Amino acid sequence: MTDHTADTGENEADMSSVPAAASDPRRRPKPDVLEIGGRKLHPSTLMMGHGYDPMLSEGSLKPPIFLTSTFVFENAAAGKRHFEGVTGKRPGGSEGLVYSRFNGPNQEIAEDRLGLWEDAEEALLFSSGMAAIATVLLALVRPGDVIVHSAPLYAATETLIARVLGKFGVHFVDFPAGASHEEIAATVERARGMGNVALIYLESPANPTNVLVDVQAVAEVRNELLDAAKCPIVIDNTFLGPLWLKPLQHGADIVVYSLTKYAGGHSDLVAGGALGAKKWLDPVRMIRNTVGTILDPNSAWMLLRSLETLELRMSRAGENAAIVCKWLAEHPKTEKVIYLGFPADERQADIYRRHCTGAGSTFSLYLKGGEAEAFAFLDALKIAKLAVSLGGTETLASHPAAMTHLSVAPARRAALGIADNMVRISIGVENVGDLLADFEQALAVV
Ligand SMILES: *Cc1c(COP(=O)(O)O)cnc(C)c1O
To answer: To test the ligand 1 pocket, which listed residue (130, 133, 211) has its Cβ within 8 A of the most ligand atoms?
Structure first.
């Protein structure tokens, strides 16, 4: 985490050597307050100020957007020191800002704040969720390595692992998301027979089946059968994080995000993130520096604004979803509702109790009938918009079999429960009575 006080060279010790304008008391940096009287402040409090000192930006309450491609060095020796950090010649990374492909103030403030939600040592921002995932994987695998992963994964992640990394001689083996300790161990044993297991990649809950992965069991298996210092557990926490699931607490090493969803939360930006210990993120940062998958300053600024309301938005969406799912499950035109609040069996209920503090707001509704009934329902919705994606302030609905999962082979679709009568819904922060009225009138049309 970078201290923006240090970046400017305007810290107290330097005051004597800087011009009069900088000795203006308004420009004296204040230390960040992380606790009061021994009470550690909650992330929802720290989202409004952590990592940014208004006095370094003319007293501007909100951070300016730093639109610059490069940063001026104090002197040549400082420039050399920065590059030693950036290139890895000196451990610890860059001490300040160098060039905007590496980092910028808006991105660093947002990274510091995002990391707080999961008590992560470091956080990195990326231009999309897929940029985050691709950069993490590129940093961790070599030709001949094997990736063990839970299945199913987000379609683009499956493509990246199987087809893109496959071209470079990286292999994979998968286990079903709900697998037991024994099943996960058997998969890891098989992978060990194929080559060096470079990482274990998880996504929980799986989309669109909503099956939870037992992260604690995966960590136990990894610690029993593999070298924990060399084989990290990476998990895509887009659906429940950072509020309802904190995988670093359950044995995962790197958490990746599509911040486009709940964290961005307004369906108006595309961004990704990776959180974890510095040891794991240093090589990821090196690849990000090399290829430039970092988020731009404008989107980073919007993300900062989103993080201020993250807890409010996610809590309200989660409460709305609980009410809507209960109502839909009891409706005569409903076949079933697949929602984390209604665990499918005792094993899933057990995983939920051990890992999650909330059921999220994205679920699958199976209507009685088939594609015609599902389409009639979707076309009749008046508040909920017909669009893919999730985690925004507005309620969205889509038809996975005909949209996001159209390219999945029919047999695999059937195995995943992606049926023609299935509708995927992400509940937003609207008035819940209005949402129920909308679903009621749309179901009446079916
Ligand atoms: C959307 C999504 C992604 C990809 O994120 P982008 O921001 O669209 O690149 C990855 N994983 C999950 C679970 C997602 O929902």
So the answer is: 130
